[in-house]
Automatic annotation (TrEMBL):
Keywords noted in UniProt: Hydrolase, Metal-binding, Metalloprotease, Protease, Signal, Zinc
One annotated GO biological process: proteolysis
Family membership: Belongs to the peptidase M1 family.
Signal peptide: 1-29
Name of protein: Aminopeptidase N
Enzyme class: hydrolase
Length: 491
């Protein structure tokens, strides 16, 4: 999710208490729970069992991603030449086919393929229209290793049609000074490595990037150290491709410590030193989020500054556009908190389909507004916040339609944020603090590192609360007009 500066103020709950009643509804999981064993994989593939997924064809952007393969692990060895503007890479993919096929297809930009092997043997393949097709027969559930050598000049891919103010071309971007950065939601990872570029196929990652002397390379995952000019990162829990990141440039580095000794790394350019104190609010943000939503789900954190007009919750290494630093501490603070909230809602629990993008953004915006109301109480009264949110909710539903029925040509519209934050406020009001935050913590912990959808969320809410909230959720997700206010559940 990218955070927009154009998102209007949502809502603060005037905290209410309540009791629950009703019958329990079983969960309907959208994906299997994280593997606790080899998941039927053998040999070297057993070590990548945590990357097992159940890929689907996306309802919004079916041209990206495939349900025919489940990538378990990406090993990326990259090198960047800022003078030649050339990226050189070797991508090693450990893949589980989901069905028998005569070939394998992945999303990929048309780099020059320098080598291609399947199981260590030469293979034939070509890139056409952002697809790499490898001519090799595969069997369902019989994993294989694909190695792709490539090089070329990076180029971006167009954003879906949108009226958003912070839209920009997606994928790997070359800055004027020869640096690199990327943002890639809902797709665009394929602009720098061959990928099954869809959130339903999460995988493990090892990323090594060689930068010129004096330059630094930053990627998603846990830092594994620097050897010469090569920087290494590893993700031992699953990552959706849109949550990976890469930045190369003349960066300054600072380090810090978060809750429970969590290592935090900050990357910024020399002329952005004034942004560092804003970035260092990360430790405070994570502490606040842990208090409300449970333990931070990863083993490191970081922030990297880039030239983008937006911001992104890239896993363990938030990508912040310099625009937010230019706007000052208040805007930066709310936006950064929003991105860290996504590490619970979007990163740790990921939507299986882009039609459920609201599962990410509604939760992150509601967390942001609760934080802002607590941190900046003089900005607006609770009643004013609620009234403003309802007015904006009606405007956005009229402009974009309800959040549960998204238009693929309007990716990331503000209805997916504000209207769903209003839905969560109603849940909060019905349940009271204790039960609402227990619901939020449970949603993350019980579904950790899986992909979920609307049906599984509704079922979880009903089971966890012991009350049937289906009608409330359906109204907020599907109504063309703002649903009526509801109060706390009767004691």
């Amino acid at each position: 999710m990218h955070t927009r500066t154009a998102i209007a103020v949502a809502t603060l709950l005037a905290f209410l208490s309540g009791c629950t009643s009703g019958s329990s509804t079983p969960d309907t999981a959208a994906s299997p729970a994280p593997a606790t064993s080899s998941g039927g994989l053998t040999g070297e593939y057993a070590s990548y069992a945590a990357g097992l997924s159940r890929p689907v064809v996306d309802s919004q952007y079916p041209q990206h991603g495939t349900d025919a393969v489940d990538v378990l692990h990406y090993g990326l060895e990259l090198a960047w030449s800022p003078t030649a503007r050339v990226l050189t890479g070797t991508a090693t993919l450990h893949i589980r086919p989901t069905r028998d096929a005569a070939s394998v297809s992945l999303d990929f930009k048309p780099y020059t393929i320098t080598s291609l092997t399947v199981g260590g043997q030469p293979a034939t393949g070509a890139v056409t229209k952002e697809k790499l097709v490898v001519q090799t027969p595969v069997k369902a559930d019989v994993p294989f290793t694909l190695v792709v050598g490539y090089q070329g000049k990076p180029s971006t891919t167009p954003w879906p049609t949108t009226t958003r103010g912070d839209n920009h071309p997606l994928g790997l971007t070359v800055s004027a000074d020869g640096g690199l950065w990327t943002m890639q939601e809902p797709f665009g990872a394929f602009t720098w490595y061959p990928a099954n570029d869809h959130p339903s196929d999460e995988a493990l990652y090892d990323i090594a990037v060689t930068a010129p002397p004096g330059w630094s390379a930053i990627a998603s995952g846990t830092p594994q150290g620097q050897q010469g000019d090569t920087f290494r990162y590893r993700s031992t829990v699953p990552v959706a491709s849109y949550l990976t990141t890469l930045a190369v440039g003349k960066y300054e580095k600072a380090t810090g410590t978060g809750p429970h000794g969590l290592p935090i790394t900050y990357w910024y350019h020399a002329d952005e030193a004034s942004y560092l104190p804003m970035m260092q609010k990360t430790a405070e943000h994570l502490q606040w989020l842990e208090k409300h939503f449970g333990p931070y789900p990863f083993d490191s954190a970081g922030v990297v500054m880039v030239e983008s007009p937006s911001a992104m919750e890239t896993q363990q290494m938030v990508t912040m556009g310099e625009r937010f630093g230019q706007m000052g501490p208040r805007s930066f603070d709310g936006t950064l908190l929003h991105e860290w909230a996504h590490h619970w809602f979007g990163d740790a629990v990921t939507p299986a389909d882009w039609s459920d993008f609201w599962l990410n953004e509604g939760w992150a915006l509601y967390a942001q507004r609760l934080y802002e109301a607590e941190t900046y109480p003089g900005e607006m009264s609770p009643a004013e916040r609620i009234a403003q949110n309802r007015e904006l909710d009606g405007t956005y539903r009229k402009q974009y339609g309800p959040p549960g029925k998204p238009n693929a040509a309007e990716f990331g519209n503000t209805c997916m944020y504000t209207c769903v934050a209003g839905m969560l406020r109603q849940l909060h009001q019905a349940l009271g603090d204790d039960r609402f935050f227990a619901l939020a913590r449970g949603w993350v912990q019980d579904n950790l590192h899986t992909q979920q959808n609307r049906a599984s969320f509704t079922a979880y809410v009903n089971r966890k609360t012991g009350h049937d909230f289906t009608a409330l959720l359906d109204a907020w997700l599907d109504s063309p007009t703002t649903p009526a206010e509801t109060g706390p559940l009767p004691s």
